[in-house]
Amino acid sequence: MNKINKYIAGMGVAVMSLATFNSCIEEVDPQSSTVIESQVNQSSSAVKALVWGLPYYFNACARDYHFEFGYGAMLHMRDVMTGDLPVSPSPSGYDWFAEYEQTTLLNQDAHTIWYVWAYYNKWIQNTNEALSAIANANKTGMEDKYAGYEAVAKAFRAIAYLEMAQMYEFKTNDKFTTGVNADGNNVEGLTVPIVTEKTTLEEARNNPRATKEVMQQFILDDLTYALENIDKFDDSDKVFPHKAEVYGLLARLYMWKEDYPKAQEAARNAINNYSGSPMTQSEALSKTSGFNDLSKFMWGAEQTDANETVKTGIINWTSWMSNETSFGYSGAEPFIMIDANMYDRIGNSDWRKLMWKAPEGSPLEGKTEWINSKTAESYPDYASAKFRPVNGDGDNYTVGAASAYPVMRVEEMYFIEAEAAAHQNAEKGKELLEKFMKTYRNKTYSCSKTDQDDVIEEIVFQKRVELWGEGLTFFDIKRLNYSVERGYLGTNFGPGTRFNTQGRPAWMNFTIYRTEAEDNPALEGWNNPNPTSACLLYTSPSPRDSTSSR
Predict the structure, then answer these.
(1) C-alpha to C-alpha distance for 181 and 126, rounded to whole angstroms
(2) pTM
């Protein structure tokens, strides 16, 4: 493939818009985002550099907008679009994620939308470049090694497409009850165009949105190859996927497909192939290493003091996810919190409840351990203590921000297994939930639900608690058509974010940035309906219960 076609194959329809992405998101060091074909053919070390560069893109950053810090930004963005993670109103105007929370700039012309499209397409470009390099390399005598490289690249491509496809898949909601858009085209079930290392320029310029079924098969093919060959990859570093993580991706895929028997099986295989165990109370609540230690995750992203994200001091995961930093955004108030209703529902004997500040007069008041208890007095009720700066150093960003954060944890697999089982047999799902909770989280836990839908909702709720702040709840809400309730008496959501929906929110169907249709006419007229400000704000008090209305 010549140089331009190779570039197009990686970028697909995003070529023109991403060409203007002239910031450090282009820098994935060693991380160089592009290695020309002649360099690749010179030695296997160049191919290795491309593969080893893939996890570095987790932390690609840009400086123009301070929500542009890579994969962690995608996680936080999705979480503030649920009902689980309110952000305290910021008098200083520091909350760069406000448009996602308030649904004010989600149209095809908005930079907030462009960044999501740009990030995932660049990630896919990186995987396609690695796969193209592998295809063109001289593999004589090293067939297994290259098969391992290919497995890793395909696993990275699979997670990128799996997340992107679910974010862009149009699903009906109370604001858009059909998939017919303003152009009169039915976009229901459409995801994003598929671009591979073999896509030509001509194909890229006539590449329609893939249906959900076609996309699912494409991802399944990548993961099937990865599963068969991932053991040939010889680096054990947890920034890379291995067999357990490939099974984990299969579990996520099968949940999206609603193939619950296969999801249950894949989740169990992920657990069985993982050498670790769920985090303990002392590990999770540690003031120095709570949720910043790569060794505690199945798969994680890791920042070091050499990463551009860390060097900025403020445009990084820790800055946005740890209230306990003096250098970070969250520490400067927009504090991150758990939803008050969600917190109240957690059992007091569940040690996970200690990851948030208990309100005055509640049974757990004063029992959360903070790095600086005096500073913590200024935090609002329900403020998070989950994600800690490294070594408990909230003042020195070169130390505190050099943190890992989870891409996949084994705890997720237990909840997928339980939910998938419950869709088939409510009692079995309930049994699996109670076993996990009593063993690892709350010795006195008991699920009182008997109705199948209620059992499933309880499993998903406990999963939401477990994975709070990790960017995954979005997918469950959208898949299961769950409502988001932010407006109620006693809410801790800010006034501009108090939306209550009937079923999945309209804003969970992302729009495609407008320039993509210019480069790929097959997209013209096939965008999702604009969800910007589609939902009405809750403005008047009502009883604090699950039936409160707008």
Answers:
(1) 32
(2) 0.92
